[in-house]
Write a structure and sequence with these properties.
heterotrimer; A mainly beta (93); B alpha+beta (1002); C alpha+beta (203); B: 1002 residues; alpha+beta; Ubiquitin-like (UB roll); FAD/NAD(P)-binding domain; 7 domains; seven-stranded mixed sheet; 24 helices; elongated; C: 203 residues; Gyrase A, domain 2; Alpha-Beta Plaits; five-stranded antiparallel sheet; 4 helices
């Protein structure tokens, strides 16, 4: 059982969350028409042995999307922040 | 004839005032509360309790605890029958029934013993090398495999429904102490004293561990005081009969509490077992050590027992495990067991100590009792009687070779050393380190949050030391847990035990005893899986040289006992085969569970009807009252059809669908996903998310919307209603409601955090009913107030608000069926009220309810796509909606939908299909082939949705066909290989009904 | 006044369930709220929202995991970053009053009055019953009165507010999506049956 420390809700079982995949992809701008950039964003992933930064959504909680740094070998959770940039910077709640 | 011939006149922690009756293999016997099945059997002189897995050798009871590999019985009968139950763990209750396993026709005379005769042909891995036929044909192997499978396995499980129920419990503690022996009790005391919330889990019914099996008065006193102090402390929870089965990430533990296993039946409403999912900040592992047997010829015979276990039977149960014993040991602990047996009235014939220099105190006591001590000797073989497969003598001899002697006995008590129970730590990745002084693997360096104390750290020989370690570990755990300051309840610590008179870890492992002077020698290493010394040598010879390969090739350690009394010897033998030190080999990693867990404990309340939650709409009871047959749609219950007397499903839905077109019908569509979208940037947001334009949608209007996935495929379809300048009401399909909501939230928080938009699920806020058919306007006019329903006022794809008998409603004029239709939304709590009012108003217009089956008929006749056509592999163009996707904006999926393979004109496209023969029936998933072509491969496409059409008077369907409507008019074969059916169909336009839409715009 | 039907269906029967000796150690009562309203602010607009809500007595807004009761009796719970749920047991006009008070650029207001069922679980064994499905520490120390958490009971999302954290007789308010209400009710009855549960419901 991974325990994720949701910044809003505190430590929770991973079964309260929905996994959202690699958080390090760069999403092209909405009006970006470049097929190669969209292809890379949608299909290409690294599969690191070690630290992985990924998205999880706290669906059985505050429903916030979170950015989680997890070690894929030890399952240690190294960091959890809100995915939304403004919230992560501590700007209001 | 005395019953229970081996029951001692006094002693043991049993209730002699009550007699329990039990049956084993049909034979009626007696025991007492406090007995296990094993102790009661031994008391009654029963030694033979089972047959081994592979060779069907007669087996008896080896141990007194959970490490038991041999005495596996089927406990209880009927629906509660539990195969492979260790007799040493089954607590006796009145009326208990047990059967031995894996033998036919009887335990004494088992036909399977033939396997033992041909055993030279059945070494480890034999079936990897034999029973093979000529390549590439595997039929020969498959035939043998059937029979090998039938011969394998131990007990047989019941297939009847489990009459018991099980519970789960989420638990939280500062410190979990695993093991209720002296070290664990001390750790719990210290941790509680340190302010921690403590849970102590002990797998046996009673606390005390090894301390409880010894005779010392000080030990008894200490135990009583410790138990009383813990019971009185409000922050301590003591769980007995509770096995910590697994240690998972996040310091989460699964603890299986056997709530009612020791009772004939659970009390009413009592769960049979409880699975605690316990989160602990710190854990103290005080799991003790498991005594190991010795490896010698025929060491698997009934009458060979672990020495401390043999001594536990008198102490715990007042049972002598035999009348005349030989004790063979490698360490000091064997003497404690030997003298305990002697004090219980068992005659000691001899003590064989592998060490050349046994301790002085032991020699002295033995000499005083006239018991010979044979230094440097061990057991070479167990001798059984001709008539009775039980030990009748032991062949003893020197380790270094030379002449031996045969000693008559009925019990060979062996102590091959103590292996710390490191299983839980190993589950967490701890790598045990080999300690040469103790010839055992001790826990490796502990990670933060982990503590260990007692025999598990190798100090089992010294009880005072175990207690001292426990006190230190408990205090450290409490401090590290950083428990909030609690009101400290004074804890009365027991007065310490006096220091041990003697302690010593000197051990001389035997490895493999020299051969006795017999033929046909088998020396067992893993008793449960019948793995012998020869198997280990074979594995090593064949190159399976790592411990991981050894385990899997020979199945050493893969039985239900996980090799608790086998792994250490097996690894030592492998090391010796390779001429390497044991330390160099390492150990395999243990996996949960530590001991077998009932499936019931794992599923708890989530089984059968309560496997998953059920979602019901506001109209659920109305559907039931109307006689609806309900069906599951994901988690929802939806009305499938409303049969009249004598109707089956086919008759019902055909009638319902025809009636909607002829008059009018009402269907509950509350399960559709509904999402509130609000904010200054709501219009821009929706325009980015839908393939068709949403920024031009005006207040008062509803628009059909197509959502694509980022990869360009169709994700969902639904509607968008603009309620206000900055507020929208979005609907999705039932199945995609949750994924769509999560996707929208992801876009707003991760991709476009600058947009000022909020989305919220309002699926449960609104009930929704669709009224459809030529009379629908009239019905609504009679039922609703405050809405002008004339087509000029409320045109197709518009919405309006009003009231229905006092309840606020909003009406969307939209149609899934192709008829004039209205969707009526009202707050959920008024749903029944609105339904009743519509039904009353509809009485004059022949309004009848219809279900999801008829709803499908209507939409298929109208060529509307649904979930079957949006299966994740189709694009908008595939289903004929290519022109809906706007070419003038960017939106999710707009770029990747232009990939060459997604715009390839050869892709299968949506068509209508109609059976040629009006009496034919086609089904979903039918493959389409050209008429006259062989039906092989994937064909030209497949059928996605089917229904019997009242409009066409025959079966119709929608499908995806290569070439699409270019094949209009062609005849195809619809082939259903699984159903064994084949029909001819014609390719037609997917809109079977009212293509001009006159009904819609009435 | 139009009567609101309970989200619990006919299958959720009141009365005593489970073990029947002695007073019920678990009480399960359905008592609906007159209004439930979700308010969501944008990054940086929380101050403006609080200012707009102050005249209604609903400011300051509670922080993560907390709730605050206004003089009027309206309780505001913090449910997520920039998101609150206001609960009023008597005043059904709250959704309209909040929508009127808050501008679209400041906050979004969603009426969820009909979207939730409200169940009160109390009694000496309330914690034990809830522990069968809730993966949170419900002890008084971990969750004092007034604390709020959204979590699950088995597979159903619930918002739990601690009304009373007394060790011997706690009270918990559970808000669950209406469509799941009947399912949660039977899960709770089954969980509490081991000790006995007395059930009361609306409608």
């Amino acid at each position: 059982m991974l325990i994720l420390h949701c910044p809003f809700c505190g430590p929770r079982d991973h079964s309260e969350f929905l996994y959202g995949g690699d958080a390090r992809r760069t999403r092209p701008a909405p009006d970006d028409a470049d097929g190669a950039r969209w292809h890379d964003y949608v299909f290409l992933r690294d599969n690191p042995r070690g630290t992985h930064v990924e998205h999880w959504q706290h669906i059985h909680g505050c429903r916030a999307w979170l950015t989680v740094t997890r070690d894929t070998v030890t399952h240690e959770i190294l960091a959890v922040t809100a995915a939304r940039p403004a919230a992560a910077a501590g700007d209001g709640r | 004839m005395s019953d229970q011939p081996l029951r001692m006149a006094a002693g043991g922690r049993i209730d002699r005032s009550r007699r329990l009756v039990f049956h084993f293999d049909g034979r009626r016997m007696a025991g007492h509360p406090g007995d296990t099945l094993a102790s009661a059997l031994l008391a009654n002189g029963v030694r033979l309790v089972g047959r081994s897995f592979k060779y069907h050798r007669p087996r008896g009871i080896l141990s007194a605890g959970p490490e038991e590999p041999n005495a596996l019985v089927t406990l209880r009968s009927g629906a509660r029958a539990e195969p492979n139950t260790r007799a040493t763990m089954a607590e006796l209750f009145d009326g208990l029934e047990a059967e031995s396993q894996h033998r036919w026709p009887s335990l004494r005379f088992d036909a399977g013993a033939l396997n033992d005769v041909v055993s030279p042909f059945l070494p480890a891995g034999f079936y990897y090398k034999t029973f093979m036929g000529p390549r590439p044909d595997t039929r020969v192997w498959m035939w043998f495999e059937k029979h090998i499978r039938r011969a394998a396995g131990l007990g047989r499980a019941s297939t009847a429904p489990d009459p018991d129920h099980y519970a789960k419990a989420h638990g939280f503690a500062d410190v979990l102490v695993v093991g209720g022996g002296p070290a664990g009790l001390a750790a719990a005391l210290a941790a509680a004293d340190g302010g921690a919330r403590v849970v102590l889990a002990e797998q046996m019914p009673a606390l005390g561990g090894g301390l409880a099996d010894r005779w010392s008065a000080d030990g008894v006193r200490w135990l009583a005081e410790a138990k009383a102090a813990l019971a009185a402390h409000p922050s301590v929870t003591v769980l007995t009969r509770t096995t910590v089965a697994g240690w998972y990430d996040g310091n989460v533990f699964s603890c299986v509490e056997r709530v009612a296993d020791h009772l004939p039946e659970p009390a009413p409403f009592q769960p049979r077992q409880r699975l605690h999912i316990l989160r602990a900040r710190q854990a103290v592992i005080a799991t003790g050590a498991i005594e190991q047997p010795l490896v010698f010829a025929d060491n698997d015979r009934p009458g060979v027992m672990l020495a401390a276990a043999a001594a536990a039977f008198p102490a715990r149960y007042g049972v002598r495990p035999g009348r005349r014993a030989v004790v063979a040991t490698t360490n000091d602990g064997g003497y404690d067991s030997a003298f305990a047996l002697m004090d219980a009235g068992v005659e000691l014939a001899a003590i064989a100590d592998s060490r050349a220099d046994p301790p002085v105190w032991a020699r002295a006591r033995a000499a005083g009792a006239g018991v010979p001590v044979l230094a440097g000797w061990t057991v070479l073989g167990a001798v059984i009687g001709l008539a009775d497969p039980q030990v009748c003598a032991a062949d003893l001899g020197p380790l270094d070779g030379g002449g031996g002697r045969r000693v008559a006995c009925d019990l060979i008590a062996v102590s091959g050393g103590w292996a710390p129970a490191v299983h839980l730590l190993s589950q967490q990745g701890n790598r045990p380190a080999f300690d040469t002084e103790r010839a055992a693997f001790l826990p490796g360096p502990l990670a933060p949050g982990q503590h260990a104390a007692g025999a598990v750290t190798g100090h089992g020989d010294d009880t005072a030391q175990c207690i001292a370690q426990g006190l230190v570990a408990g205090a450290a755990a409490a401090a590290a847990a950083d428990a909030p300051a609690r009101s400290r309840v004074a804890l009365r610590r027991p007065a310490p035990l006096p220091a041990a008179a003697r302690a010593g870890v000197a051990i001389r492992p035997v490895g493999e005893a020299p051969d006795p002077p017999w033929g046909r020698i088998r020396k067992f290493v893993d008793l449960q899986n019948d793995v012998t010394v020869k198997d280990i040598a074979l594995a090593n010879r064949e190159g399976y040289a790592s411990v991981e390969h050894l385990k899997r090739y020979t199945t050493l350690g893969m039985g239900t006992d996980q090799g608790k009394t086998a792994n250490p010897a097996g690894m030592a033998l492998l090391a010796r085969q390779q001429g390497r030190p044991v330390a160099a080999l390492g150990t395999t990693r243990f996996r949960p569970p530590y001991t077998p867990v009932a499936l019931g404990a794992l599923h708890g309340a989530e089984v059968g009807a309560t496997l998953a939650p059920v979602r019901r709409t506001a109209l659920h009871d109305r559907h039931l009252a109307a006689g609806a047959v309900m069906a599951e749609a994901g988690l929802w219950m939806r009305p499938w059809y409303y049969p009249l007397a004598g109707e089956d499903m086919d008759a019902a839905y055909r009638r319902e669908a025809a009636h909607v077109r002829a008059a009018c019908g009402i269907v509950d569509v509350s399960t559709l996903g509904k999402i509130d979208v609000q904010g200054p940037d709501a219009a821009l947001f929706l325009d980015r998310v839908y393939a068709n334009r949403m920024d031009t949608l005006k207040v008062g209007r509803v628009r059909y919307g197509l959502m694509l996935r980022e990869d360009g495929f169709l994700m969902d379809d639904g509607t968008v209603a603009r309620l206000a300048e900055t507020q929208y009401f979005v609907t999705t399909t039932t199945a995609q409601a949750a994924p769509v909501l999560s996707m929208l939230e992801y876009l707003l928080e991760v991709a476009w955090p600058d947009l000022r938009v909020h989305v919220a699920s309002i699926t449960d806020q609104w009930a929704a009913m669709a009224v459809a058919g030529p009379h629908s306007r009239a019905v609504l006019a009679a039922a609703l107030d405050g809405i002008d329903l004339a087509t000029e006022a409320l045109g197709h794809m518009g919405w309006a608000e009003g009231r229905c008998a006092g309840a606020p409603v909003r009406v969307h004029r939209a149609s899934f069926s192709g008829e004039l239709a209205y969707e009526v939304f009202c707050p959920t709590g008024f749903g029944e009220h609105v339904w009743d009012r519509l039904m009353a108003a509809g009485a004059d217009h022949d309004l009848r309810p219809y279900g999801t089956e008829a709803m499908a008929t209507l939409r298929i006749e109208k060529g509307h796509i649904a979930g079957a056509e949006i299966d994740g592999r189709t694009t908008a163009a595939d289903v004929g909606l290519g022109r809906m996707a706007s070419a003038r904006k960017s939106y999710t999926g707009s770029v990747l939908k232009e990939r060459p393979d997604l715009v390839d004109p050869a892709r299968p496209r949506l068509v209508g299909l109609e059976v040629v023969d009006a009496s034919a029936r086609i089904g979903n998933g039918a493959l389409l082939f050209g008429d006259g072509d062989p039906c092989r491969g994937h064909g030209l496409g497949h059928v996605t949705s089917v229904t019997w059409s009242p409009v066409r008077g025959r079966y119709i369907g929608l499908g995806l066909l290569s070439g699409g409507l270019d094949r209009l008019g062609e005849r195809l074969i619809a082939d259903e290989p699984v159903r064994g059916r084949r029909s001819l169909v014609t390719v037609v336009d997917p809109v079977f009904y009212d293509p001009a839409g006159e009904k819609l715009h009435a | 006044m139009l009567e609101r039907a309970s989200p619990l269906g006919a299958a959720s029967t009141p009365g005593r369930h489970g073990a029947a000796d002695g007073p019920a150690p678990v009480l399960l009562h359905e008592t609906p709220a007159a209004a439930l309203v979700q308010v969501s602010t944008f990054p940086g607009t929380e101050g403006a929202a609080a200012a707009a809500l102050a005249p209604l007595g609903l400011a300051p807004l509670p922080g993560p995991g907390e709730s605050r009761e206004a003089v009027s009796g309206t309780v505001v719970t913090a449910t997520g970053p920039g998101r609150w749920l206001a609960i009023d047991l008597h005043d059904g006009t709250l959704p309209v009053r909040l929508a009127d008070a808050l501008r679209a650029e400041t906050a979004s207001v969603v009426d969820l009055t009909h979207a939730r069922a409200r169940l009160i679980v109390s009694g000496p064994r309330a914690r034990d019953a809830l522990a069968k499905g809730v993966p949170l520490d419900l002890s008084g120390e971990a969750r004092p009165a007034g604390s709020v958490a959204t979590t699950r009971f088995a597979h159903v999302t619930v918002q739990i507010r601690v009304l009373d954290d007394a060790p011997a007789d706690p009270r918990f308010e559970l808000l669950v999506m209406s469509s799941f209400a009947g399912s949660l009710w039977s899960d709770l009855v089954e969980a509490a049956a081991e000790w006995g549960v007395a059930c009361r419901r609306h409608g």
